[in-house]
Amino acid sequence: MNGAEALLAPRLEQRIIPGLERVHRALAALGHPERKILAVTVLGTNGKGSTAAWLSAIATAHGLVTGLYTSPHLVPVEERIRLADVDIAGTRLTDTIASLAAFPELSYFEALTVAAILEFSRLPVDLAVLEAGLGGRWDAVNAVDAPVALLTNIGLDHQAWLGSSRTAIAAEKAAALRGSLALVGEWDDEVESTIRSSAAPATRIMLASDWANLTAGPLGAEITVAGLRVPVRPPLAGAHQLANLRLAVAGAAALASLGLHPPLEAAALAAGIAAVRWPGRLQWVRVAGRDVLVDGAHNREAATCLASALDDLGLSGKVHLVFSCLRDKPLEAMAALLAPRAASVTVAPLASPRATDVARLAAAFPGAVATDSVAAALAGSPGDGPILATGSLRTVGEVLRLAEEEHNAR
Prior knowledge:
With 410 residues, this protein is of the alpha/beta class. 38% of the residues lie in helices and 18% in strands. It folds into 2 domains: 3-275, UDP-N-acetylmuramoyl-L-alanine:D-glutamate ligase; 283-409, Alpha-Beta Complex (Protein-Tyrosine Phosphatase, Chain A), CATH 3.90.190.
């Protein structure tokens, strides 16, 4: 545990209390750094991080100095805050978190959000891209007034905080849409009216497809936006990533229309898209002599996308599944999607107080082998074919940590 993590650890014990008052008080005491940055907020159930990473990369390729705030982290906490396309230095984050000692009421996520806003205002950045956490009206990133917001999609996740139905979750997330313009990546009749009625009255709600279109082909895709037709080869795998890419491109076009981003140029757009790196999403790594595909799918919708990707990649029935998840996730629904596509299943508990009990994990996957850690699950996975590690971003983070340790030991 490094300096920043040690300072943040006590905040993990705090109960989540809805409301922006704590963040507003801290920002006011710090001189309102949120008023010194231009921000875009990225909300939704799945795809927020990928969308935010693409928008940041596109803006960087057009010459802007960007700040990118995402969550959760996979390995070091510093990866949550990127300044000019580089993770914040550990000593710098430690100092910034230490400066927030006067605000003990801030939760873990709230403290990191305030730290990100402070750092973005100090650099300063031309554009801050802020990924929401839970993503409802009380999410800490909503303490920043963003002229443009991006809403990826609505699915079932974090029901204890956002509501038990897609309609209720849509209402909570749309209540955070209060800038000049909000772009929605995916929606349907079930949530459209809810999104429109729950957003701020002055906010114009539009679809990403109103701004940008994307046509997929065997060798990549072609984006049509702002009078441009740009062939691209997106580096993030999976058909679902194309929707995230379209939303990010649409967000850049919307910002440009408001004079908040340079006019889009074909070469810069292609370069930004190609430059994106977003770990833990259909990413191959090497651990203990095995090829391991890691993916952060942790709810029904994300597991559906992962299952489709396995089919498209010709991996169904060939991967040896290593699975773990947190106890508030739809274990049985994810198991129903992934078990038929696995040659074998090994389950392991996560090192978290919110981890699902290993006995329940094993019960969801009849015939699964139970182990006591993700590392043991990887080492004990049968055969010599590829391994798929999924179920939680914590699972992914553990695999990436092991891969990094092996690489550094060479």
